[in-house]
Design brief:
- Two copies of one chain form a homodimer.
- The first copy, chain A, is 75% helix and 0% strand.
- Chain A is an all-alpha fold.
- The radius of gyration of chain A is 17 Å and the shape is elongated.
- Chains A, B: Its main location: membrane.
């Protein structure tokens, strides 16, 4: 089997996973370091999904790091299918969460009332942007793994 | 080549495409049969995306109908790749649009001010639900076509 960059167990995949986790943590930090986020459904959704993405990406990053540094790539098609399905589900959920957050923060900004005290809305938008980047990386790694599936 | 149900040129694919177009039209009708939709960015986004989904799905439904009834399934890998990429892009965009619309209408409903006169917000929610169903069907047909690609 030739090594497809980005598939499970390669260093490119390790980089993708770490990028997902870092962007998800950044999104959580931008969202959670104030008090008001739980009064909006979309923001709670974003926090939930990012809280799911972080352990998932870190676990797979650990698998990749083990496979890169200890040099034992064990790929079973069953395990790969589970990883692909989990990646798909999480990537769709994070896309939905980031677009919900973006639209709600845009609406809060446009209605220039007392919602955005200080630069809260900018932080919401940054959080949505980070979640979007995390979605993009997660989508990339699920595509690479899907490409690998017929050859595994 | 065995006939995979749901792939390009089969009757299942024709049903999927017609379902996408019908749900997209329903979403547009629920959204557009009043005046206020263009004051919210998320709703304009939904209208734009549904306006893209409808001609795309109808064109591919016409291709499928031609292929089913006139019996000439011509599948070139290049054409199939274009259709798959278009399906993916449109499905991601419609997922983002439907979740944006759902979160904005939820926020408008929760803020029980003067935003929802009559049952406007229920119609926004119905429109988001229709867009979500259209996304689901579009995702299904893109998955079937992607499955077909290695064998084409």
């Amino acid at each position: 089997m030739d090594e497809l960059p980005g598939a499970l167990g390669t260093s490119a995949s390790l980089a993708l996973r770490l990028g997902q986790a870092i962007f998800a943590v950044a999104s959580l930090l931008f969202m959670c370091l104030d008090i008001e986020f739980y009064s909006y459904t979309a923001f709670c959704f974003l926090v939930t999904i990012m809280g799911l993405v972080i352990p998932w990406s870190l676990t797979l990053a650990a698998v990749d790091a083990f496979s890169v540094f200890v040099k034992r790539p064990t790929r079973q098609p069953g395990l790969l299918s589970i990883i692909i399905i989990g990646d798909w589900v999480l990537s769709f959920l994070s896309l939905a969460a980031s677009s919900s957050t973006a639209s709600v923060s845009d609406l809060l900004m446009a209605s220039n009332g007392s919602f955005c005290t200080g630069n809260l809305c900018t932080r919401y938008q940054l959080s949505a942007a980070m979640a979007f980047l995390s979605w993009f990386l997660s989508f990339a790694s699920s595509l690479f793994n899907l490409w690998l599936l017929p050859t595994a």
